[in-house]
Amino acid sequence: MRFIFFSINDFTKHGGGVIRMTGVMNELIACGHEVILISNVKLQNATGLNSNIRIVNIDSIFSTRKKRAFQALLAVLPYYVINLIFKNFFKRMKVIFNSYPNQSPIFFEYLDNSIGYWLFRNGLIDGYINDLHGIVPLEFKFQLRMAIGIRQKIVFYSKYINSIILDKKVFSNAAGFIFASKAMEDYLGSQYPSILTKKNVILSYLLSSDSNNKILNKELRCELIEKYSIKKSNIVILFSGIFKRTGGVPDLIEAFNNVSSAYDTAKLILVGDGTTFEECKELVSKYNLEKKVVFIGRTNYNDLVTYQDLADIIVCPDKQNIFSELIIHVKYLDALASGKIVINGSFKSVLEINVNESLSLNFIPSSVESLSNVLARSIKDCDALNEKYKTNKLFVVNHLTYKSNVEVLVNLYVPY
Q1: Beta bridge mates, 314
Q2: CA dihedral angle for residue 15, residue 21, residue 23, residue 26, rounded to 10 degrees
Q3: Is the pLDDT reported for residue 45 higher than 80?
């Protein structure tokens, strides 16, 4: 079967979206299907993508400002007005899709979903299928709740309303959907009932089948040990991800401060950056933890395995939020694949696979006290927990990769 995928992404930054896109397409190729990727990826940057994927380059990079403008305008203006505002992009789309007539491509990410609607309304494609693994109105609603001052509140309220208007347009015209969880399908179906009348499949956030084949960077490992004075006696606690409002990294620092005096050999390594980065640095300074907490900053995704190898305990400290209730984050799956002790919030999505803490330790999201207690337990019982979770790597390979799940996409094109 032929699958055509579309993404404005250039695949140069490895995040959850790129991991999902790469994993899905690679496994479809492995199953013998034909895959065409229409995107901004260039062949020299196509690392991780199967060489049998036929790449069609869009050659039209969208800046953050351009992305926001396209979506905001598409929500409130007729599609044919957007053709005039983005005329060069429209011309490029006509050239590409004239080569692939009578197709219903799969559109991967949020901006891609909107472009699918726009192309459909212009008659350039027969239909479009959206991969839904985020709920943007909820993100804006959260930012609105956290906003300080009238101006910020007006901005985020406007974005919230605009995103709802856009979603109604995009969802009502789509031919089908790929949901990252049944809970997400149920939630969005309750908000937009027309969704439930479409052809839908569930494909969870998973890992690529080669997730256990990543190569340890021994040189980097030695550099880190020397630079940050990591000794064999240290208990290394690791966070890797985005420092965002719902990410809970400040909570992790608070929890670490609560247990660090009792466990003097504990060291906290924080990999990544984001909106709460400066807040986290201020907390470390406030508690005089500079000798125990290391900020690495943003790093290459391929180096994650090296940081995990240094760690004894990996923490995913996300605060309570509906998005985490609905889907499992890639950072949690990556953590499980490391074979190390993992601490994660007791979200409904996680509890579906982590029955009775069979894969990881749970804490109550947004509770620093709960996170502190679980962190102390993981340090105290480190040896016993390592024994308990030593088969996690095998479980991930057998149950949490796209290899055993991706064939559900065939159902999107099979007549009822």
Answers
A1: 238, 342
A2: -140
A3: no
Pick from 266, 310, 314: which is nearest to 292 by CA?
A: 266
DSSP 246: T
Structure tokens at 21: 């896109």
Separation of alpha carbons 247 and 49, rounded Å: 29
253 neighbors 154 (Cβ within 8 angstroms): no
Q: Using CA atoms, how far apart are residues 390 and 394, in angstroms rounded to an integer?
A: 9
DSSP 323-356: HHHHS--HHHHHHHHTTSEEEEE--HHHHTTSGG
d(Cα 24, Cα 32) in Å, to the nearest integer? 13
Instruction: Give tens-digit pLDDT for 299-344.
Output: 888 899 999 999 999 999 999 988 898 889 889 999 999 999 999 9
Q: What is the DSSP letter of 287?
A: T
pLDDT tens per residue across span 99-152: 988 889 999 999 999 999 999 999 999 999 999 877 888 888 888 888 889 999
Token pair, residue 235, equals 């208990």
Residue 238 CA to residue 293 CA, distance in Å, equals 10
Handedness of CA 206, 208, 211, 217 (dihedral sign): negative
d(CA 316, CA 247): 8
In the chain, what percentage of residues exceed pLDDT 70?
97
Give the tokens for residue 371: 């996170």
First to last CA, the chain: 17
Contact (CB, 8 A) for 107 and 115: yes
Both tokens assigned to 363: 């804490």
